[in-house]
């Protein structure tokens, strides 16, 4: 855990899911001031958007220093994304693989637009760091989650905006089990329980039953990844 905070302002891409919540805790431990941004992009369910405000309030209560460091939350309208492509994340269609080798849960350009609009907001809010939960270890092959993509985007943003923004992806090279371990190191059992009970990852928007790993349908790719990671995390703890 980081004991001395950098005197920088960070903006965390915060969806209300497991990964972005872990990244928020990471940023709160690392940076002096942290703001959050979420996106309404016409997703097929709005559960993540519903969970975000109460999740942020509960994060504040985990540590006094997190409450002090956590600043304003922003919600941006990117519904244009849902008009540009037909995917299982924006329409009520079955999740399946496509001829190009990518699952139809991939929303072309989504993370690129997220980062670009976050960078524009960061410019106004005087933030010098963008934090995202992209991961190349446990992912579905999404090209906009790759480290090379994010590094190239950082260069393009800074050239185009005359800034020195850093894009940080603390989960890039760890798997889901390690992300549970990271959350435990950052916020202890309290953060683990908060992630289990209050974050949302399920592609189908299922929020009824609480499994040992959290809420979700239990069968979609996001639920399977989260569940398998949680069980591996528990096994490694003995």
TrEMBL record:
<keyword id="KW-0067">ATP-binding</keyword>
<dbReference type="GO" id="GO:0016879">
    <property type="term" value="F:ligase activity, forming carbon-nitrogen bonds"/>
</dbReference>
<dbReference type="InterPro" id="IPR014729">
    <property type="entry name" value="Rossmann-like_a/b/a_fold"/>
</dbReference>
<feature type="binding site">
    <location>
        <position position="217"/>
    </location>
    <ligand>
        <name>Zn(2+)</name>
    </ligand>
</feature>
<keyword id="KW-0479">Metal-binding</keyword>
<protein>
    <recommendedName>
        <fullName>7-cyano-7-deazaguanine synthase</fullName>
        <ecNumber>6.3.4.20</ecNumber>
    </recommendedName>
</protein>
<comment type="pathway">
    <text>Purine metabolism; 7-cyano-7-deazaguanine biosynthesis.</text>
</comment>
<keyword id="KW-0547">Nucleotide-binding</keyword>
<comment type="function">
    <text>Catalyzes the ATP-dependent conversion of 7-carboxy-7-deazaguanine (CDG) to 7-cyano-7-deazaguanine (preQ(0)).</text>
</comment>
<dbReference type="Pfam" id="PF06508">
    <property type="entry name" value="QueC"/>
</dbReference>
<feature type="binding site">
    <location>
        <position position="202"/>
    </location>
    <ligand>
        <name>Zn(2+)</name>
    </ligand>
</feature>
<feature type="binding site">
    <location>
        <begin position="14"/>
        <end position="24"/>
    </location>
    <ligand>
        <name>ATP</name>
    </ligand>
</feature>
<keyword id="KW-0862">Zinc</keyword>
<feature type="binding site">
    <location>
        <position position="223"/>
    </location>
    <ligand>
        <name>Zn(2+)</name>
    </ligand>
</feature>
<dbReference type="GO" id="GO:0005524">
    <property type="term" value="F:ATP binding"/>
</dbReference>
<keyword id="KW-0436">Ligase</keyword>
<keyword id="KW-0671">Queuosine biosynthesis</keyword>
<comment type="similarity">
    <text>Belongs to the QueC family.</text>
</comment>
<dbReference type="GO" id="GO:0008270">
    <property type="term" value="F:zinc ion binding"/>
</dbReference>
<dbReference type="InterPro" id="IPR018317">
    <property type="entry name" value="QueC"/>
</dbReference>
<dbReference type="GO" id="GO:0008616">
    <property type="term" value="P:tRNA queuosine(34) biosynthetic process"/>
</dbReference>
<feature type="binding site">
    <location>
        <position position="220"/>
    </location>
    <ligand>
        <name>Zn(2+)</name>
    </ligand>
</feature>
